[in-house]
Design goal:
Elements (H helix, E strand, L loop, with lengths): L1 E3 L2 E3 L16 E5 L7 E5 L9 E7 L2 E7 L7 E7 L2 E7 L4
Antiparallel strand pairs: 1-2, 3-4, 5-6, 7-8
Length: about 90
């Protein structure tokens, strides 16, 4: 969403992801018979990834994946404002 003369203009953006501020800690252990592959264990047994698109970041490299299920978290809307951009939750349909 951009504002021109106080009027918002909405443009749909495809093939972009916004990273939310939620995260979890995981342990990464290489497989004994194939050290190029790893097994990922969550540190907190109560932590669960929500249904949505996610990314695992290891050594600065992001690996995107999806968690199946109904997405219950609100989508994000990017707004271009003076000095940068902000992301806010969208609770309606766009």
């Amino acid at each position: 969403m951009k504002f021109k003369s106080g009027v918002p203009t909405i443009t749909k953006v495809a093939k972009q992801l916004a990273v939310r501020r939620s995260s979890g800690e995981f342990r990464v252990v290489p497989l004994d018979d194939n050290p190029e592959m790893v097994v990922i264990h969550r540190e907190n047994a109560e932590f669960a990834l929500p249904a949505d698109r996610c990314a695992l970041v290891s050594k600065g490299q992001a690996y995107a994946f999806s968690v199946a299920g109904q997405i219950t978290d609100a989508a994000l809307v990017r707004s271009d404002v003076v000095g940068g951009m902000i992301h806010s939750k969208c609770h309606g349909t766009q």
